[in-house]
Amino acid sequence: TEELPGERVNMAVQVRGGPSKHEGIGWVLINPLMKEDEGIYQCHATNMAGEAHADGSITVIEENKSEKASL
């Protein structure tokens, strides 16, 4: 995902394991987004049956000032 600084970013991850009553959803909200928030985010889920993980990355792009001025 590429986002601009100052935007609101929401990443959601759904994990499943075993019966449906054991489903879960985890999320992280970054508001406002800053260049320092750029990187790889990891979600880890563990239960008696095992474990799983997922990775997601956020890249913060710099807004081109000359393009912004011409708009």
Automatic annotation (TrEMBL):
Pfam family, one: I-set
Gene Ontology annotations for the cellular component aspect, listed alphabetically: extracellular space
Gene3D superfamilies: Immunoglobulins
Coiled coil, from the record: none
Domain of life (superkingdom): Eukaryota
Key words of the record: Secreted, Signal
Domain Immunoglobulin I-set: 29-60
GO biological process: regulation of cell growth; regulation of signal transduction
UniProt-annotated location(s): Secreted
Gene Ontology terms, MF aspect: insulin-like growth factor binding
Xref: PANTHER family: INSULIN-LIKE GROWTH FACTOR BINDING PROTEIN-RELATED, INSULIN-LIKE GROWTH FACTOR-BINDING PROTEIN-LIKE 1
Protein name as catalogued: IBPL1 protein
Organism lineage string: Eukaryota, Metazoa, Chordata, Craniata, Vertebrata
